[in-house]
Amino acid sequence: IQKKKMVHAVRILRKRPRWWSLIPLIGFMAFAATGATSAALYFLFTKPDVILNKTRNPEPWERVDPSKPQKLITINQQWKPVEELELVKRLTK
Question: Which residues cross the membrane (predicted)?
Answer without folding.
Answer: 21-45
